[in-house]
Specification:
- The structure is a homodimer.
- Chain A is of the alpha/beta class and about 350 residues long.
- Chain A has one domain: TIM Barrel (Alpha-Beta Barrel).
- Chain A contains 17 helices and nine strands.
- In chain A, the strands form two sheets. A seven-stranded parallel β-sheet of chain A has the order 1-4-5-6-7-8-9, with helices on both faces. Chain A has a two-stranded antiparallel sheet with strand order 2-3.
- The longest helix of chain A has 25 residues.
- Chain A starts with a helix and ends with a helix.
- Chains A and B meet through helix 10 and helix 12 of A and helix 10 and helix 12 of B.
C-alpha cells in the first residue's frame, strides 16, 4: 500500500505523520456529490455500486484524505432484516412500522449479507480495485444500540423516549432485538472484510444518550460481541460514540483498536484516561469547519500536537456538516497533512 | 418555613431526608396543566400571574414536591431585550430575526426587569403569599450561552452551527452578546430574589455542546459573572447543564452552591470529582419515568443512597417529558420522600 498511515496509526505502529480523514467525507458539502445526488435518490445511490464508488472516491480525489470510506448508510442492514426503511437525506430516515413488541422482534431475520446486500460488497470490491493500494478502505456498520434506536423510534429522535421506555419497562425485548442486530452486524462486517475492507468502523453514535450503567448493559456487551466475532487479524476496528466523555473507560473495554471521540472531551484527557494501549480518532468540533481556513489549520495543528503523533488519527468529533465550505474542509485536510 | 429541606440541602446543612422536585414539574404531563393551557396561549400563560401561579402550585398540590418553581420560560428576558420571540410549546421557541451581526447585538437593550417583566415578580410575590412558608420558592433564568444559542440560531438547534460559526469566526461579537445577556440576567435574578425567590436556578442547558476549552471561554465566565453579582446571602444558587460530564470540575468553579447534573454521569463519580464542598442535584434519566412505578421507586431509592443523604437534591437529569404518566411522576416523588 502506498499510504498505509491510518492502518499503522490504528495498530500503534510508528507513523511519519498523523493520518487524517473526515466522518461523512463523502457528502453534501461537496458540489461533486450534490451533482450525483441531484439525479439519484439517496437509497438508490447507496445501492448503485458505480455511483456509490464515485462519491466514495470524491473526497480522496478532491481533498487528498488519507483513507476512503465506502458510501453507504447504517440502516442498509436494517432494511435487510425485514423492516421498512425510507431514507431521504434532508428529512432523515423514517421507519413507518417501528418495532415495539417482542413479536415484531421475533419476525425480524438475521440476513445473509451476500444475498440481501450484495451491492455493499460490490462497492468495496470496486473501491479496492480503483484505489489500487493508494490509501486504506474503510467499511462500517451501525452498532446495535444505535440501530435499535432508529428501529424502535421509527426514525431520528430527540429524547429516545420509545427505546428507553422499552429498555426500562421491557428489557428482555430490547435485549432480544439488540442480540439479533449484533448477529446481523457480525455477518455484515465479516462480509465487508472479505470483500476488501481494510479497516472497519462501528458507529454507536447515540450510545452517548445512556447513563453509564445503561451503557454497560445495553450497548457495551453488543459492541464487545461484534468486535470479538470479526475475522480481523489485520483489520483494525474503530468504535465511534457521540458524547462518549463519561464512559470512555468502559468504551476502552469494547475490543476496538481505536476510540473515535467527540469534541466534548479534551484529547489529552482522553489519552490520560484510556492509557497508551488504544488509538484515538478525533476530535475537532465539526462547527470549527464553518469558520476560517486559518483558524481551522491552527486548531488542526493543535490537535496533532495533543495527539502526540502516535496512535492518533485526526478527524472531526462527528460528521462534517452539509453547509461546510469546501475550502474549509480542504484547510482541515491540508493542515492535517502538514501542508499548511 | 415548614419544609426547608431543599434550602438546607443546598447549603450543606443536615437534613432528615433528601428533598425532591422535578425540572419542568409544572408542565404538560399534568392533566390539570393541560386544562389551563387548553384555554391559553403559552406566552399568555407566562404573562398572566393568576394562571402562572395556578400551574406553579399544581405539582405541589398534586404530587407533594419539596419545592415550587415559578412557571415561566427562559426566553422571557430575551423578549425584553428587544428580540421578537414566539413561543409555541409543541413546536418550541421561534425567533424570526436571529442575531447575526454586531449591529444587532448593539441594538439589544439591558432591560429593567421591573419595567419590562413585572408579571414575573408578581408571580413570585403571589406564590410566596400562597405558599406561606410551606416549601421553598425557586426562581430561575437561562444562562448567557444557552440564551444566546436561541437568539443566534433563531430557535432550538441540532448542531448549534450558527452560534458556533459566530463563536469561531467572530468571537468578539459573541462575547458582546453574552455580556449583554449576563447583565440582563443579573438584574432579572436580583429582581426575582427581591420579589421572594428563595433559591435560584441558572439553566445553561446547552453548554454541554461545547468543548471543554470553549466552555471555559464562552460559558463559564458568564455563569461566574452572574453568580458573583447576585444579592443572595441566604439564597442558594443551582447551575444546570445538560451533558455536563466532561467539565464538571470547571462547572464547580462557577460560584453555584449546587450543580444540577444530567444522567450521563454516575452520581457517585460526580461527587468524587467535585468533592464535598458543593451540592448535587439530580440525576435520573427522565425516560425512567416512562416505565413502571416499581422500577421508578427502586431507582429513586438507589439515587438517594448514592447521594448519601447530604448535599443532595433528588431530581431528574433534565425536564420531565410531556408523555410521562402522572402515577409515575407520583412514584418518583413519593419514593423520594420515603413513602414507597
Amino acid at each position: 500500500m502506498k499510504n498505509d498511515l491510518m492502518i499503522r496509526a490504528a495498530r500503534g505502529e510508528a507513523v511519519e505523520r498523523t493520518p487524517v480523514w473526515m466522518m461523512r467525507q463523502a457528502g453534501r458539502y461537496l458540489p461533486e456529490y450534490r451533482a450525483v445526488r441531484g439525479q439519484t435518490e439517496f437509497l438508490t445511490l447507496c445501492k448503485t455500486p458505480e455511483l456509490a464508488v464515485e462519491v466514495s472516491l470524491q473526497p480522496y480525489r478532491i481533498l487528498g484524505v488519507d483513507a476512503v470510506i465506502m458510501f453507504s448508510d447504517i440502516l442498509i442492514p436494517v432494511e435487510a432484516m425485514g423492516q421498512v426503511v425510507t431514507l431521504t437525506e434532508k428529512i432523515g430516515p423514517k421507519l413507518p412500522e417501528p418495532i415495539r413488541t417482542r413479536a415484531q422482534v421475533d419476525r425480524l431475520i438475521v440476513p445473509d449479507p451476500i444475498e440481501t446486500t450484495p451491492f455493499v460488497m460490490e462497492i468495496l470490491r470496486i473501491l479496492r480495485r480503483e484505489l489500487d493500494g493508494a490509501v486504506p478502505l474503510i467499511g462500517f456498520a451501525g452498532a446495535p444500540w444505535t440501530l435499535a434506536a432508529y428501529m424502535v423510534e421509527g426514525g431520528g429522535s430527540k429524547n429516545y423516549a420509545e427505546i428507553k421506555r422499552m429498555m426500562f419497562a421491557e428489557p428482555k425485548t430490547l435485549h432480544a432485538l439488540l442480540d439479533k442486530i449484533a448477529d446481523t452486524v457480525i455477518l455484515y462486517l465479516n462480509a465487508q472484510i472479505e470483500a476488501g475492507a481494510q479497516i472497519v468502523q462501528l458507529f454507536d453514535s447515540w450510545a452517548g444518550e445512556l447513563s453509564p450503567r445503561d451503557y454497560a448493559e445495553f450497548a457495551l456487551p453488543y459492541q464487545q460481541k461484534i468486535l470479538a466475532a470479526l475475522n480481523r487479524d489485520a483489520v483494525p476496528a474503530i468504535l465511534f460514540i457521540n458524547g462518549c466523555g463519561t464512559f470512555l473507560e468502559q468504551m476502552a473495554t469494547s475490543g476496538a483498536d481505536v476510540l473515535s471521540i467527540d469534541w466534548r472531551i479534551d484529547l489529552r484527557d482522553a489519552r490520560r484516561r484510556i492509557g497508551d494501549r488504544l488509538g484515538i480518532q478525533g476530535n475537532l468540533d465539526p462547527c470549527v469547519l464553518l469558520s476560517t481556513p486559518e483558524l481551522i489549520a491552527s486548531k488542526a495543528r493543535e490537535l496533532i500536537e495533543a495527539g502526540g503523533g502516535r496512535r492518533h488519527i485526526l478527524n472531526l468529533g462527528h460528521g462534517i456538516l452539509p453547509m461546510t465550505p469546501v475550502e474549509n474542509a480542504r484547510a482541515f485536510i491540508e493542515a492535517g497533512k502538514g501542508l499548511r
